[in-house]
TrEMBL record:
Name under which the protein is recorded: SsuA/THI5-like domain-containing protein
Source organism per UniProt: Xylaria grammica
SUPFAM superfamilies in UniProt: Periplasmic binding protein-like II
UniProt keyword Metal-binding, yes or no: no
InterPro entries cross-referenced by the UniProt entry: SsuA/THI5
Membrane-crossing segments per the record: none
Pfam families: NMT1
Length: 317
């Protein structure tokens, strides 16, 4: 009788034991910024993780997504209507650049007045252009933002910014890499590049308050962030170990990735000034989205610093 009972109950006990699904991360797989996640997955994370195309909006649209990654612009856009979002880590800070055509009479930033600038409206790209050009007294009405497409490697399609710059349908490009570098290469000696330290993209890993409150899911996220910290250290200190794999992950070439590596600050931290940055930037996002800008009190809730602290402790063990 005891033998029959054991056979009967054993499968039920197995069914009653919850099995945690594999960690799921949503990132835009067509930007260089996501590539440390791949190295973390392949080299340092000991559990199962899937990385799918998406971003922070995926946290709201797909309950199976545990982590979403995007710039601070998209984080703000989503947080305005999803106050349960939490940024737990910044993986890279990118100092965007502008490349312009000297043949169009551009030798300094002020010369962009009246020009056509390739950028993505309502994103960190346009915000960067507005922020940088404001330092020389130019407002949004002083130039024209022209939408187009990004390019990851040559040959760039006719609707991409590098091709548009080469044709002369735009006079400059302002955005993330490698489109700026490809634009510079497309026009050769005619290119002038404006580098800056006024604006940096803060590329975030975000999750939800509910997932952070779930002990089992939190442990998974902590473990992945600990792996990501190790991957970031390689990106920062020994990039040759990972540049070929990272370039292949976004279907670009390693030579191009090496060219733009210096404008990327590969890091694993929660910037001390992140709320200050977002407080100012949300004025732009709010105008673009037709809402009221969020207050400092509201924005301070968006940053969770405890998970990274736990990940760093785990990495020490």
């Amino acid at each position: 009788m005891m033998y029959v009972s054991q056979i009967f109950w054993s499968p039920l006990l197995l069914l009653a034991t919850p099995t945690l699904a594999a960690l799921k991360v949503a990132s835009s797989l067509e930007v260089l910024e996501w590539t440390p996640e791949l190295i973390a997955k392949e080299d340092y994370y000991n559990e199962t993780v899937s990385i799918v195309n998406g971003g922070i909006p995926s946290l709201a649209s797909d309950p199976s997504v545990d982590i979403g990654a995007n710039s601070e612009t998209q984080l703000l856009r989503q947080y305005a209507s999803h106050k349960n979002l939490r940024t737990v880590l910044t993986t890279v800070e990118v100092y965007y650049r502008i490349v312009a055509s000297k043949k169009k009479g551009i030798g300094k930033l002020e010369d962009l007045k009246g020009k056509r600038i390739g950028a993505f409206p309502s994103t960190s790209s346009e915000y960067f252009v507005q922020t940088l050009l404001a330092t020389v007294g130019l407002g949004p009405s002083d130039y024209t933002i022209v939408p187009g497409g990004a390019c990851l490697k040559e040959p760039c399609g006719s609707g991409t910014f590098p091709a548009m710059l080469k044709r002369g349908t735009i006079d400059a490009i302002g955005m993330w890499e490698p489109s700026v570098q490809l634009g510079a290469e497309a026009i050769g000696d005619d290119a002038i590049i404006f580098e800056q330290t006024i604006y940096r993209e803060i590329y975030n890993l975000a999750t939800t308050a509910e997932k952070l409150a779930d002990p089992a899911k939190r442990r998974e996220i902590v473990a992945f962030v600990a792996a990501l910290v190790k991957a970031e250290n390689v990106f920062r200190t020994d990039p040759e170990k990972v540049v070929e794999r990272a370039a292949a992950a976004v279907k670009t070439n390693a030579t191009l990735f090496r060219e733009v590596w210096p404008v990327h600050r590969w890091t694993a931290r929660n910037p001390l000034d992140i709320v200050d940055v977002m407080l100012e930037e949300d004025k732009y996002v709010a105008r673009a989205d037709g809402r009221t800008a969020m207050s400092r009190e509201v924005l301070e809730t968006i940053v969770d610093r405890t998970l990274l602290a736990d990940a760093l402790k785990l990495g020490e063990n």
